[in-house]
Design brief:
The chain is α/β, with parallel strands linked by helices and 415 residues long. It has 2 domains: 207 residues, Rossmann fold (3-Layer(aba) Sandwich), CATH 3.40.50.300; 176 residues, P-loop containing nucleotide triphosphate hydrolases (Rossmann fold, 3-Layer(aba) Sandwich), CATH 3.40.50.300. Helices cover 44% and strands 14% of the residues. The strands form 2 sheets. The chain has a 7-stranded parallel sheet with strand order 3-4-2-5-6-1-7, with helices on both faces. It has a 6-stranded parallel sheet with strand order 8-13-12-9-11-10, with helices on both faces. α14 crosses α15. The longest helix is centred in the C-terminal third of the chain and has 31 residues. The chain is globular and about 70 Å long. Bound molecules: adenosine monophosphate (AMP).
Length: 415
C-alpha cells in the first residue's frame, strides 16, 4: 500500500515524501481513510507504530480543506497527551506534515511560563496540542474556548489515567461540543479505559496493531542476572561495547536515575538524566543533545521517557526491571521503531527476578540470558520474613536521617 492510495491531499503527500516515509505503517493504512471519512477511532497502539501520523494527517487535511473554503480560523482540532515531551513531539510532527499547508498549530504544557503560549493562541491556531493541566488552566483564564472543536484526539489514554488525569479529562469532555469526531488511542485496553472510550466515542472503528503483549519483531532482547551491589559495574561493562552508539537507560526512580548518572560520570562515561524533578528547559536541552548525538547515555524514568522519539535509537537498557510487565513493553518500544532494528538489554537483581517471570509470561517467550557476565547473580531473593525485616530497617534509617537533619538544623539556628 502507498500513501497515495489513502486519499491524502498533495501538499501532505509531498511533505511525507520529503520526510522519507515510503509506505504507511499498518495503523496509518487503517486509520487514515476511516478518519478522513469522518469515523471515530478506538486505536489500540503503542508509541512506535506511527500512530501520531495516523491521527495528525487527517486532522491537518480536514482543516486545510476548511481554510481553502474560507472558514474562519479557530481551534478546530484538539490533541490531548499526558506528557510535555510527547506534546512537543506531536507538535513537531504536525509541523512536518503540515509544512505545505496554511494550517496553524501550537503546543501548550505546564512547567514553563504561559505568556509565549498565550501569545501564540492569540495569533490564531487551528490545531492545539496540550497536556491536560495547562489546558484547563488557560481555559479557566479565558484564553481558550473549546466550543469550536471538530476533531478531538485523546492520546496515550492508559498513561493518562495512570498519571491521575481522569478528573481533568472528565472536565474537558464537558466543554467539548457533542457534535465532533473523536479519536482515542491507548497502548492497553483495561476495563477503565474501555469504559472511558465508551463515554467519548460514537460507533468507533476499532484498530489494533502490535498488541502490547507482543514485542516488535525487529527487537532483540537479552538479560543479565546480577546482584544489587554489582548492577552499576555491570552497566559500565555493558556500555564498554562500542556497538552501543547511544542508549536510553531506564531507572524506576528519579533518585536512582541521578545516582546512575553520577556513577557513570565517575567512570568517565558522559551521561545525563531526564525526570520530573528537572526543570523543563533542562529536560529539553538534554533531550536535544541526545537527539543530536552529542550525548551517549540518557538515563530516564518511565514517565519522562514517554514519547521520547529518537529515530536512530537502537539500544535501551533496563537498569531496573519494572514491576509492571506492560511497562517493560513500553520501555523497549523506544528502540527498533518503525521497522528499525533494536536491542533491549535488561539487568535483574535477585529481588526483580519475579518481575522478569511476569514479563516473560506477557511477551510469551523467555528472554535470552547473556552468559558472558563478569558479575553473575550469586545472592538469593529475600524471603518474606527477611523482606519484612529489611523494610523495618529502612524505615528506621529514614527516621534516623530525618531526626539528624532536624537536629543539625536546630544546632545551626542556635549558633
Ligand atoms: P509514533 O508511533 O507516531 O511515535 O511514530 C514512531 C516513529 O515512526 C516516528 O519517528 C515517526 O517519524 C516514524 N514514522 C511514522 N510513520 C512512518 C512511516 N510511514 N514510515 C517511516 N517512518 C514513520
Amino acid at each position: 500500500m502507498k500513501f497515495e492510495h489513502l486519499g491524502i491531499i498533495d501538499p501532505i503527500l509531498e511533505a511525507l515524501k520529503d520526510k522519507g516515509y515510503v509506505t504507511p505503517t499498518p495503523i496509518q493504512g487503517e486509520a487514515i481513510p476511516a478518519v478522513l471519512a469522518g469515523q471515530d477511532i478506538l486505536g489500540c497502539a503503542q508509541t512506535g507504530t506511527g500512530k501520531t501520523a495516523a491521527f495528525a494527517i487527517p486532522a491537518i487535511q480536514h482543516i486545510h480543506r476548511g481554510i481553502e473554503e474560507g472558514e474562519r480560523r479557530c481551534i478546530r482540532a484538539l490533541i490531548i497527551t499526558p506528557t510535555r515531551e510527547l506534546a512537543i513531539q506531536i507538535d513537531e510532527n504536525i509541523r512536518t506534515y503540515a509544512k505545505n499547508t496554511q494550517v496553524k498549530h501550537t503546543v501548550i504544557f505546564g512547567g514553563v511560563k504561559q505568556h509565549t503560549q498565550v501569545r501564540k493562541l492569540q495569533n490564531g491556531v487551528d490545531i492545539l496540542v496540550a497536556t491536560p493541566g495547562r489546558l484547563l488552566d488557560l481555559i479557566n483564564q479565558g484564553y481558550i474556548d473549546l466550543g469550536s472543536i471538530e476533531v478531538f484526539v485523546l492520546d496515550e489514554a492508559d498513561r493518562m489515567l495512570d498519571m491521575g488525569f481522569i478528573n481533568d479529562i472528565r472536565k474537558l469532555l464537558k466543554l467539548l461540543p457533542r457534535q465532533r469526531q473523536s479519536l482515542f488511542f491507548s497502548a492497553t485496553m483495561p476495563d477503565n479505559i474501555v469504559k472511558l472510550s465508551r463515554d467519548i466515542l460514537r460507533n468507533p472503528k476499532k484498530i489494533e496493531v502490535t498488541p502490547v503483549s507482543s514485542t516488535a519483531d525487529t527487537l532483540e532482547q537479552a538479560i543479565y542476572y546480577t546482584n544489587k551491589s554489582t548492577k552499576r559495574n555491570l552497566l559500565v561493562h555493558v556500555l564498554k561495547n562500542p556497538e552501543i552508539d547511544q542508549v536510553l537507560v531506564f531507572s524506576r526512580t528519579k533518585h536512582g536515575a541521578d545516582k546512575i548518572v553520577r556513577f557513570l560520570k565517575q567512570k568517565h562515561i558522559a551521561a545525563a538524566a531526564i525526570h520530573g524533578d528537572k526543570a523543563q528547559n533542562q529536560r529539553q536541552k538534554v533531550l536535544k543533545q541526545f537527539k543530536e548525538g552529542k550525548l551517549r547515555v540518557l538515563v530516564a524514568t518511565d514517565i519522562a521517557s514517554r514519547g521520547i522519539d529518537i529515530n536512530q535509537l537502537e539500544h535501551v537498557i533496563n537498569f531496573d526491571i519494572p514491576n509492571e510487565a506492560e511497562t517493560y513493553v513500553h520501555r523497549i518500544g523506544r528502540s527498533g521503531r518503525a521497522g528499525k532494528s533494536g536491542y533491549a538489554i535488561s539487568i535483574s537483581e535477585p529481588e526483580e527476578n519475579a518481575y522478569v517471570r511476569d514479563i516473560e509470561k506477557l511477551i510469551g517467550k523467555k528472554i535470552p540470558v547473556i552468559q558472558d557476565n563478569p558479575f553473575p547473580q550469586t545472592d538469593k531473593p529475600m524471603t518474606a520474613a527477611e523482606k519484612k525485616e529489611w523494610n523495618k530497617e529502612k524505615q528506621r534509617r529514614k527516621q534516623e536521617y530525618f531526626a539528624n537533619r532536624k537536629k543539625n538544623r536546630n544546632t545551626r539556628i542556635s549558633r
